[in-house]
Write a structure and sequence with these properties.
The chain is mainly α. It contains 6 helices and no strands.
């Protein structure tokens, strides 16, 4: 029986948006972070590239986890990892701590991005899949989210807000789709 609710679509879209906001946030908060933590040019570069590095390193692994452990479990795990890393980044006492938190944010985002669309493909069937996934939020709208919003607030507050948002999305994500399937048994 096909799913007709748009809730799974909204949950995956919000989680994907969260990943994109985490990706772009340093663009507007780098100056404040530099002043607060006394960052040098090398640390600034690592902060800017830490999340993309983590996402790139974790994307294939997250896809493999999605295939063996289940897409929902991997998606929710990625959401939790991104949330905890965002809280850690907000509490970062040093530049190195913040860099590590950014890499971990990327690893969590990899779980979200690798399994989000696959999870929706697993949930929706037939006409709802064609209609909702064909013209959903995947058309670049999330990437157009205004990163300057983070500049209006303290950089730590912006990171806390990201962690809070991810934690609030988690209970909804737990209810996405069928339970995780069992790993395939070797023949």
């Amino acid at each position: 029986m096909p799913v007709t609710s748009k809730a799974p679509l909204a949950i995956v879209a919000l989680a994907t948006l969260l990943s994109l906001v985490v990706f772009t946030l340093p663009l507007t908060t780098l100056e404040a972070m530099t002043a607060a933590l006394g960052l040098g040019p090398a640390q600034q570069a690592w902060i800017m590239s830490g999340m993309p590095l983590g996402a790139a390193c974790g994307l294939l692994i997250a896809g493999a986890f999605g295939d063996t452990l289940g897409r929902r479990r991997t998606f929710v795990g990625g959401l939790w990892l991104a949330a905890l890393a965002s809280v850690a980044a907000a509490l970062a006492p040093t530049g190195l701590f913040l860099i590590v938190a950014r890499v971990v944010q990327g690893l969590g985002s990899a779980g979200i991005m690798a399994c989000g669309l696959g999870l929706l493909g697993q949930i929706y069937e037939g006409e709802p899949r064609r209609r909702d996934l064909g013209r959903g939020p995947w058309r670049g709208r999330g990437a157009g989210a205004d990163p300057r919003r983070g500049a209006a607030a303290d950089w730590r507050m912006a990171r806390r807000a990201l962690g809070d948002r991810a934690c609030r999305d988690h209970p909804c994500a737990e209810r996405l789709g069928p339970p995780a399937r069992e790993p395939a048994q070797p023949a």
